[in-house]
Design a protein that fits this description.
Elements (H helix, E strand, L loop, with lengths): L4 E5 L3 E6 L2 E6 L3 E9 L5 E10 L7 E4 L1 E4 L7 H13 L11 E7 L9 E7 L14 H4 L2 E6 H4 L5 H22 L1
Length: about 180
């Protein structure tokens, strides 16, 4: 963003005005993780959704992907994704399991914002799911994670999960095609 005026400041973002438009300028980077499972034929069965407390949504909850902020101790974005998968999903997937991960790209979820979300899919088939650790925040205390059938996941009205799933579907089908050749 160029030549902006700060209207309000919070710890993670500023409300700014630029070119007579109001938007958000983020101070932190956020990643997203879409866990999924496959059957013995490689067909995607379930995908992980976070029922996240959000007072801006009807019923006070959004059904979205695991998201999290990059922290100082994270070596890189994949380490952030691994940490958030365990914190919010209760699923441990070590760095040694890097072949389970697919980088889906970056998403800009809001048109009046500079927030860009690097998004990952991860095959959690056969991995143990424990109680999510959480980060200690009140928001995460009110949130829950579950693996749901793909047929339910694609009916979400949340943009990030739908966009990630569509892109994942493209990359996953290309991967399966290559493995079959």
């Amino acid at each position: 963003m160029k030549d902006f005026k700060v209207l309000h400041s919070e710890s993670n973002f500023d409300v700014v005005e630029v070119a007579q438009m109001v938007g958000l300028k983020y101070k932190t980077m956020t990643i997203a993780v879409m866990p999924y499972t496959v059957d013995e034929n490689g067909l995607v069965l379930t995908t992980g959704f976070l029922k996240e407390y959000n007072p801006f949504r009807q019923g006070n909850y959004a059904f979205t992907l695991i998201t999290g902020t990059v922290e100082d101790q994270d070596e890189d974005l994949i380490n952030t994704a691994i940490r958030e998968l365990e914190e919010e999903g209760g699923i441990t997937c070590s760095r040694e399991d890097i072949s389970r991960w697919i980088y889906l790209g970056n998403f800009y979820p809001y048109k009046n914002s500079d927030l860009m979300i690097p998004t990952f899919a991860v095959d959690v088939t056969g991995l143990e799911t424990k109680e999510p650790k959480g980060d200690g925040s009140a928001k995460e205390e009110k949130s829950s994670f579950e693996m749901i059938p793909v047929s339910e996941a694609i009916t979400s009205d949340e943009t990030l999960p739908l966009a990630a799933f569509l892109l994942f579907n493209y990359f996953y089908s290309k991967t399966v095609d290559m493995e079959q050749k």
